Amino acid sequence: MRIALIGEFEAAYHPEATPALVLHHLIRGYDAVVLNADEVAVLRELLGSMQKRIRELGSYRLILGASGDLAFYTVSGQRSAYLNADQMRQLARLIDASPPQPAEVHQ
């Protein structure tokens, strides 16, 4: 198990466990994001490029900003976690994602 402090969150990653990734909000004292291994694999791919996208991931809606930030929203529309670009890169390293690359622009 790998653990990292990322902003206001303690991120715990254990690829062989269920859940595989937990972002625990240190100030509020609850698990803000809980993902299984399959969901972490999808997240790993999404974090590989800096491109604005909105994706469903398990019970969350992810908003990936063009500047590299990341927000997790619950089904009810409540924001459960926000990571700025630096924090998102820390999360990407924790889950062994490729470093974010600028999106290709086709003209």
Describe the structure concisely.
The protein has 107 residues and is an alpha+beta fold.
Layout: helices, strands, pairs:
Elements: E1 2-6, E2 9-13, E3 21-25, E4 30-35, H1 37-46, E5 49-50, E6 53-57, E7 60-64, E8 70-73, E9 79-83, H2 85-94, E10 101-102
Parallel strand pairs: 5-10
Antiparallel strand pairs: 1-2, 2-3, 3-4, 6-7, 7-8, 8-9
Written account of the structure:
This protein has 107 residues and is of the alpha+beta class. It has helices at residues 37-46, 85-94, and strands spanning 2-6, 9-13, 21-25, 30-35, 49-50, 53-57, 60-64, 70-73, 79-83, 101-102. The N and C termini lie far apart (44 Å).
In one word, what is the shape? globular
The structural class is: alpha+beta
The whole-number mean of residue pLDDT values reads 91
Q: Describe the oligomeric state of these chains in a short phrase.
A: single chain
Distance between the termini: 44 Å
Say how many strands there are.
Answer: 10
> Tally the helices: what do you get?
2
Topology as a string of helices (H) and strands (E): EEEEHEEEEEHE
- Report helical residue fraction: 10-25%
Strand order of the largest sheet: 1-2-3-4
* Rg value: 13 Å
**Beta-strand residue fraction:** 35-45%
**Which spans of ≥5 residues are poorly predicted at pLDDT below 50?**
none
Biggest sheet features: 4 strands, antiparallel
